[in-house]
Specification:
This protein is mainly beta and about 90 residues long. It is about 0% helix and about 40% strand. The strands form three sheets. It has a four-stranded antiparallel sheet with strand order 6-7-8-9, with no helix packed on it. A three-stranded antiparallel sheet has the order 1-2-3, with no helix packed on it. It has a two-stranded antiparallel sheet with strand order 4-5. A hairpin with a 2-residue loop joins strand 7 and strand 8.
Length: about 90
């Protein structure tokens, strides 16, 4: 199993903080912004941070070696904490 799913344009994962599926763009021919990632679906790392807003939560995080690192001002229960990603 993988921690993320992906195609040539987009990487997707389930956020353990808000419970939503988030996606980020990895192809310059796709939508902005574009993120670089290590292309490792078992232990993903993205270069930069993702700020994602849902109807219910604000989520700002980094993904490093398969660990979700939530910034302290996220508005969900994992704000300021880190959690290993789970298989999809």
């Amino acid at each position: 199993m993988s921690k993320v799913t992906h195609d040539e344009n987009t990487v997707r994962f389930v956020c353990l903080g808000c419970g939503q599926r988030h996606a980020f763009n990895v192809c310059a021919n796709h939508q902005e912004p574009v993120y670089r990632w290590n292309e490792n679906s078992q232990s993903p790392t993205i270069y930069g941070t993702l700020q994602l807003d849902t109807d219910e939560y604000q989520c700002h995080l980094a993904i490093r070696a398969g660990v979700l690192q939530f910034l302290s001002y996220c508005t969900h229960r994992l704000a300021g904490h880190s959690e290993k990603m789970r298989d999809e």
